[in-house]
Write a structure and sequence with these properties.
single chain; 0% strand
Length: 265
């Protein structure tokens, strides 16, 4: 068996990637359109990117999105790392199957169901929807991805290093911060970036759990598109695509370096 792709596979992959990415490329190209008509090319211009700086609703939505994504990434990374440590270090404890299912359920749950469930929860406990409800919702679905990334690194971790540190008198907490955390740091960083990107890109769950003053950028873009696509929306979408792409690429690079270090060490 060789690693070369057959002509049929090459054509299939090319058509598949073209179907997925040509619409995005068209959107990016038309974000530099000088014409106000989005379907008529009027020459190259960056005026719509400068126009974004004067669009206060879009800037407010972008600021809300970045704050939600940053707090979400921090909380999801802490909780996801703790869950990964519990699943890796504590073997078969009572309720492990239930705990594992609860941690990974948001990964396979449809976003509509997750959003609706959280909406009913916030209504039931009489919590006003806003910035913190969106953040809590994003933490629930992004922490499971952090757990997967960190757990994969912990499984391959050489526990002899931890045992040596504790033999020298270090407490479990000191051992974790002095030995374990530096070794799994690439996976933790990759999980952080993944959670940040997922929060940045979410529309469905945020639509259920947001409230006045907590409109995210994807929600603002979606509501604007329903009234008609403008070059300004294309520019805002292009910036969002760029942020998500950078986050995914950096997370992939960090994860790949972590795997290479594990294989080398």
């Amino acid at each position: 068996m060789t690693g070369r792709l057959s002509p049929f596979n090459v054509v299939s992959l090319t058509l598949g990637f073209a179907f997925l990415y040509i619409p995005i490329l068209i959107l990016i190209v038309y974000s530099f359109n000088a014409s106000r008509l989005v379907t008529v090319w009027g020459g190259f211009s960056t005026q719509w990117y400068f126009a974004l700086l004067e669009n206060e609703p879009l800037l407010d939505a972008a600021w809300v999105t970045l704050r939600v994504a940053f707090v979400t990434a921090i909380v999801a990374t802490v909780l996801g790392t703790l869950a990964a440590v519990a699943l890796t270090r504590y073997g078969r404890f009572r309720g492990r199957a239930l705990f594992t299912g609860m941690v990974y359920a948001p990964m396979v749950m449809p976003e509509v169901i997750t959003g609706l469930s959280l909406l009913l929860l916030f209504v039931a406990i009489d919590v006003d929807r806003g910035y913190w409800t969106v953040t809590a919702a994003h933490v629930t679905f992004s922490m499971c991805f952090v757990t997967v990334v960190v757990q994969a690194r912990l499984v391959a971790f050489d526990r002899a290093l931890e045992e040596a540190a504790m033999d020298l008198g270090a407490t479990p907490l000191t051992t974790f911060f002095s030995v374990t955390l530096p070794v799994i740091a690439p996976a933790v960083i990759a999980g952080f970036l993944l959670a940040f990107t997922l929060s940045l890109d979410d529309l469905v769950i945020a639509s259920f759990t947001s409230g006045p003053g907590a409109t995210t950028l994807p929600m603002r873009i979606y509501s604007s598109v329903r009234l008609g696509v403008t070059p300004e929306i294309n520019a805002a979408s292009t910036i969002l695509i760029l942020l998500v792409t950078v986050g995914v690429i950096v997370a992939a690079i960090v994860t790949k370096r972590s795997v290479m270090m594990r294989q080398a060490g």
